[in-house]
Amino acid sequence: MQTSSADTLRTLLTPLSWVYGLGVRARNLGFRRGMLAIRKLSKPVISVGNLTLGGSGKTPCAMHLARTGLKRGMWPVILTRGYRGTAPGTCAVSDGKQILLGPREAGDEAFLMARHLPGVPVIKCPDRYAGGLYAGERFRSDLFILDDGFQHQRLHREVNLVLIDDPARLIQDRLVPTGRLREPLSELRRADEIVITGQDMAQENSVRLADLAGGVPLSTMTYAPDSVVNGGGEVLSVETLRKKKAVVFCGIASPERFRNTLMGLGVDVIEFRAFRDHHEYSDQDLARLQARAREMGAEMVITTEKDLVKISDPEVWALRMTAALSGETLDRIFAAVQQGVS
């Protein structure tokens, strides 16, 4: 009965997907034919984006690229829309030396990037071109990294990365609202690099993606547990988690993947609670989770680092993940950046 209801709802929503698809195709055609303006900043831009709603590792990838830029002697700046951040207009979440906005004003991901990227200004602005101009006037910068930028075609970029978290699902997916696709799969051809995050890719999916993308290079990004941190800033090794009984919660786009990661580390997940993505945790939420942990004899309460930025309780722990692209992929990306400089 549940499947039948889901199929009925999908059928009812299908005309909306057609209308949405027509609008997206018309907009993309406008950019391709020059009817819609594309503006260029004075310094090169790397865009990190995806083709679907929800998470695919964009924020960890953007942070990895910023750190790589620093190591290669560059002065990167992050440009982000600061999703769900309440601060209006163009503003600095971080000036590279200190954090200037909290997670509520900046948005979860923007604040997380500011916290993890000393030396890298993080600029929040819905219009990333305006954000780039703002950054160029105030900070030393020679590289802009555009977080969640694939659909933000108004800004020229030297490198266009598309991240895919689940190739098999992507190939079978549909346009919103009946599916998760923001754009048709054919738009993968706009990418300069397609990055598969967090899992191996079956050969048949690799061939299908390569066909859809028209020869765009395919690479992978490792996204692995690094450590465990609590709301008070204490850091432990991931080995600490092994055989620990835990109440686990999160408010992210892919909650099951988070639970599976913890179980793979040996965590005994005795209760799991998935909130909506970007959930704002109340004192009552945390009190209920802590009470449940005591009731069930849990040794830890664990969430994601994105969730932890909104929680200061030292009894709540978060799994810290780190992303890494191969040296070959990074060399391709930064070679294109250097071509943009010259």
Per-chain topology:
Blueprint (H helix, E strand, L loop, with lengths): L1 H31 L12 E6 L7 H14 L4 E5 L10 E4 L8 H4 L1 H9 L5 E3 L3 H11 L4 E5 L11 E6 L2 H6 L20 E5 L5 H11 L4 E13 L4 E2 L8 E6 L4 H10 L3 E7 L8 H14 L3 E5 H4 L7 E10 L1 H15 L1
Parallel strand pairs: 1-5, 1-6, 2-4, 2-5, 6-7, 7-8, 10-11, 10-12, 12-13
Antiparallel strand pairs: 3-4, 8-9, 8-13
What keyword list fits this structure?
11 helices; Rossmann fold; 13-stranded mixed beta sheet; 342 residues; 38% helix; globular; 13 strands; alpha/beta; 2 domains
In short:
Helix content is 38%, strand content 23%. The protein is α/β, with parallel strands linked by helices and 342 residues long. A hairpin with a 4-residue loop joins strand 8 and strand 9.
